[in-house]
Design brief:
Elements lengths: L2 H20 L1 E2 L1 E4 L2 E4 L4 E4 L8 E2 L1 E2 L2 H13 L6 E5 L2 E4 L19 E7 L3 E5 L7 E5 L2 E2 L2 E2 L3 E7 L3 E4 L2 E4 L25 E7 L3 E4 L2 E3 L8 E2 L5 E4 L2 E4 L8 E4 L2 E4 L13 E4 L2 E4 L5 E5 L3 E4 L2 E4 L7 E6 L5 E5 L2 E2 L2 E2 L2 E2 L4 E4 L18 H5 L21 E4 L3 E5 L4 E4 L1 E5 L2 E6 L3 E5 L8 E5 L5 E5 L8 E9 L4 E9 L8 E10 L2 E8 L10 E9 L5 E10 L10 E3 L9 E6 L12 E4 L11 E4 L17 E5 L20 E5 L8 E5 L4 E5 L9 E10 L14 E9 L4 E8 L8 E9 L2 E4 L4 E3 L6 E8 L2 E8 L14 E6 L7 E6 L8 E10 L1
Parallel strand pairs: 1-5, 4-6, 4-7, 7-10, 8-11, 9-14, 10-15, 11-16, 12-13, 14-17, 15-18, 16-19, 17-20, 18-21, 19-22, 21-23, 22-24, 23-25, 24-26, 25-28, 26-29, 27-30, 28-31, 29-32, 30-34, 31-35, 37-45
Antiparallel strand pairs: 2-3, 32-33, 36-39, 38-43, 39-40, 41-44, 42-43, 44-45, 46-47, 47-50, 48-49, 48-51, 51-52, 53-68, 54-57, 55-56, 56-68, 57-67, 58-64, 58-68, 59-60, 59-67, 60-61, 61-62, 61-63, 64-65, 65-66
């Protein structure tokens, strides 16, 4: 052997000795299994020298990063990570720095990011209370936005005999060693997740999950299968996974709606126990597929002896139930738009529970690859679908004209890729629907529907349902519009006349056989040229018909209209036609001698809702505006259109409430009265239904607020405002404060106060007289939730510099939909 080869072998031998002398493999016992650390067996133990023991670690991060490394190097077998009793923090529990969202994995602020699958994390003692894996950050408390302890990409993750807790808003109590107890970072229940996963086959066994809002016990965000067995979950709203099976689990809910909305094939609760102090407990916020079998609820302050299934449901979904109790009695369920289906005596029960009383987990979890997490005996088990989905949930058809084909498909739980054959039957939800609709079913399980009621003037809503042989159900909502007729003709030509201080558009239509006037009338005011003369080819929209069936044929004149020409347009319509594409327009003479406007009772049904950026006396300015103080927050791209506001129904806490709603985030409205007048006083009476239910007002505290401008110069953005805003101190209240604006910049002129009454039925009054600025927020409609001493009503007073401007404005920077508002009423008064 040559000298070079000898030296090479000698170097390799010395390195081997050094490596093994520094990093010896550690031997330990798990139950009866004797183990030695290696590239697939790790041990996390604070009492051991991790430098002297190979694959031994003193923290979670290093163990997972090593797992990620060996997996990337080609290791195929399962990696098992064992934890000795202790408390393990995912990062520094006392670090006050703000963690920012990351662009990797899921794009949220996180403690540990990992891309590795086929990993099993196990507590050594078998008691999940002995090993606590902890985080101490949440939204605005140690993190800029939503925070998760783990942001994980990987399949085949198993967690066993461990406690996971985000202790940002709850105290950590460690019974084995009280010296390791840790006080929560904040009293506020903030958004703080445990783990989010992009993966499949997630199995959680005998684990405890503790958190507040958005707890997220390894929730899969890509629709992957998620099985929780013998787990305890203590959480708040929007916390539970949206596609999961829970077996023998215990839940303690410290707020309402622990589940946001089931997704994919939904959620299943089997032999679970639920505990809550909520007087009106909801299972979920928005409806989706869900099943509850052999479950028990204990509710200490139950209202009406009911469990509320969902706040808003989907038409085609069902609540499948069997043998559930509330406080020891049979479960009474309020489902709203859903229909509960008792499957106790139906073949469908076998999809969840076998004849011998065991639960059919294999049927629920098998998917396309026959995953069997409980090692269930599968001999003789057939595929039993758990979801029936219609091809069309909502259908519109013209009576006596349209025919629509509808189908339905049955699916296995956790497998939407492979429909299962099913014998289907179609029928009416109610026998009375036969009067309006005909159903024809073919031999392939499809049906055809057609409206059949002759000479019907009104639209009708019917429901048809489809049922499978094993007991699955679904339905479609069919809105039947009357057979369309031509738009009505005038029997009296429209005439625009002034009657005292109003312009009135008089006309008559040929309406017979129960038809009614639903004409669309819009009012415009002309523009003036640079010399102050009216220009007839450019117009500002000043009022419109936002509500079908309420033609707005009167226009109240004010002194701001003097010197202008007013135009009214009309498109004729009744309930059996669309608005006439032909529009007739009529103009007034130049307006003279109109009254001074000292009071304005705004009817939001007729308020213009489209973009109108000009600031003109007596005209509404409508814009989408992103104020400078929201610059650091990125707003999602919303629909691109000319609407700023919509007359529509609200969501969630404002469900079934109609009024002016946000069409875009940043919606702003401003009204400028006569600008040459010196105003001495002004008041605002504002009625609003916020969509948020429990008083928090907005979806987050990332620059979300509502300003009401008073005695404001809309041209220079100067004056005063009452700001209603959400901050990090409360999750069930807002704060209100007065601001002074100067050329768009503002400063506080009083200290903020907290209030819980910014809920449905809210009335806000703002008044300014000379140097005195006052405001009150009251609510006589809603029963307050547990307010923790925060008042349901509040008032503000400030002494300020007088303003002589009379402008009004409303700026809303909150997100649209379930975080918006419904404006019910607005009244402005000036002196």
């Amino acid at each position: 052997m040559c000298d070079n080869m000898k030296r090479l072998f000698f170097a390799i031998f010395i390195n081997f000795l050094l490596l093994n002398s520094v990093s010896a493999q550690h031997k330990f016992t798990y139950r009866t299994e004797k183990l030695t650390t290696c590239d697939s067996i790790f041990l996390v133990d604070l009492s051991l020298d991790n430098e002297a023991n190979k694959f031994v670690f003193d923290n979670v991060r290093d163990a997972l990063k090593m797992a990620e490394k060996v997996r990337a190097n080609g290791l195929k077998r399962k990696i098992r990570i064992f934890f000795s009793p202790n408390v393990y923090w995912v990062d520094d529990k006392d670090d006050n720095k703000i963690v920012m969202p990351k662009k990797t994995n899921s794009g949220v602020a996180s403690g540990i990011e990992i891309k590795a699958g086929n990993i099993n994390m196990i507590g050594l003692t078998g008691n999940p209370e002995d090993v606590v894996i902890a985080g101490n950050r949440g939204e605005k408390y140690g993190a800029d936005r939503m925070y998760t302890m783990f942001d994980w990409v990987g399949d085949d993750l198993t967690m066993e005999d461990l406690t996971f807790g985000n202790f940002c808003s709850i105290d950590l109590v460690y019974k084995r060693n009280p010296d390791l107890d840790h006080e929560k970072r904040t009293d506020r229940v903030t958004g703080a997740k445990i783990a989010i996963v992009r993966g499949d086959r997630i199995h959680l066994k005998n684990c405890i999950f503790k958190g507040g809002k958005n707890t997220s016990p390894f929730n899969t965000i890509n629709g992957g299968r998620h099985f929780l067995e013998n787990c305890t979950i203590i959480c708040g709203e929007n916390s539970l996974p949206a596609n999961a099976v829970f077996l023998n689990c215990k839940f303690t809910f410290n707020t309402n709606k622990p589940l946001y909305s089931p997704m994919q094939t939904g959620v299943v609760f089997l032999n679970c126990d639920f505990s809550t102090n909520e007087y009106k407990p909801f299972v979920m916020r928005k409806g989706g597929p869900a099943t509850m079998i052999d479950c028990r609820w204990e509710v200490s302050h139950l209202r009406n002896e009911l469990i509320y299934w969902t706040q808003t449901g989907q038409i085609d979904m069902r609540a499948y139930l069997s043998n559930n109790t509330v406080n020891g009695d049979s479960m009474k369920l309020w489902v709203g738009p859903w229909i509960p289906v008792d499957i106790t005596n139906k073949p469908l029960l076998r999809a969840y529970k076998l004849a011998d009383g065991t639960y059919n987990i294999f049927n629920l979890m098998r998917g396309e690859d026959d995953w069997n997490p409980t090692k269930q005996n599968t001999e003789g088990l057939k595929k039993i679908p758990t979801l029936l989905s219609v091809t069309q949930r909502r259908i519109q058809l013209e009576n006596e004209v349209d025919e629509v084909n509808i189908g339905a498909k049955a699916y296995m739980f956790s497998d939407l890729n492979n429909p299962v054959p099913a014998k289907l039957t179609w029928d009416f939800e109610k026998p009375s629907y036969k009067e309006y609709l005909r159903i024809t079913q073919d031999d392939q399980g499809r049906c055809t529907v057609k409206g059949i009621k002759e000479n019907e003037n009104e639209k009708n809503v019917t429901f048809i349902k489809v049922t499978s042989a094993n007991g699955l159900e679904s339905s479609s909502r069919i809105k039947i519009y009357p057979r369309q007729l031509p738009p009505p003709e005038f029997t009296k030509t429209p005439e625009l006349k002034r009657v005292k201080d109003e312009l009135v558009l008089n006309y008559k239509l040929n309406l017979q056989n129960g038809l009614r006037d639903e004409s669309v009338i819009k009012w415009y005011r002309c523009v003036k040229d640079k010399d102050g003369n009216p220009v007839k080819d450019k117009w500002y929209l000043t009022a419109t018909t936002n509500v079908v069936g309420e033609p707005h044929n009167r226009y109240k004149l004010t002194r701001a209209d003097e010197g202008y020409i007013i135009k009214a347009s009309i498109a004729t319509k009744h309930q059996r036609c669309e608005a006439n594409p032909q529009v007739w327009s009529y103009t007034s003479d130049v307006i003279r001698n109109a009254p001074k406007q000292i009071s304005y009772d705004v009817n939001v049904k007729y308020l213009p809702t489209q973009v109108q950026p000009d600031i003109v006396d007596g005209v509404w300015t409508m814009t989408v505006n992103k104020p400078a103080d929201t610059k650091k927050y990125k707003w999602p791209v919303e629909r691109q259109d000319s609407l700023v506001w919509l007359y529509d129904m609200g969501f969630d806490g404002a469900a079934n409430s109609y009024g002016l709603t946000l069409a875009h985030r940043g919606a702003r409205m401003m009204f400028t009265p006569e600008s040459h007048i010196v105003y001495k006083a002004m008041s605002i009476q504002f009625d609003v239904d916020p969509c948020k239910e429990i008083g928090q007002g907005f979806a987050g505290n990332d620059g979300q607020y509502m300003d009401l401008y008073i005695m404001y110069n809309n041209r220079t953005n100067s004056g005063y405002a009452l700001r209603i805003f959400r901050d990090k101190d409360y999750d069930h209240a807002v704060k209100m404060v007065f601001l002074k604006y100067t050329n768009g910049e503002y400063e506080k002129v009083c200290e903020p106060v907290a209030v819980t009454g910014f809920r449905r039925g809210c009335h806000i009054s703002v008044e300014m007289k000379g140097k005195k600025l006052t405001a009150s927020l009251t609510n006589k409609v809603q029963v307050p939730y547990d307010t923790l001493g925060i008042p349901a009503e509040a008032s503000l007073t400030a002494v300020v510099e007088p303003s002589t401007f009379g402008g009004f404005g409303l700026q809303h920077t909150g997100s649209i939909g379930g975080s918006g508002i419904v404006i019910k009423g607005l009244k402005l008064d000036w002196k």
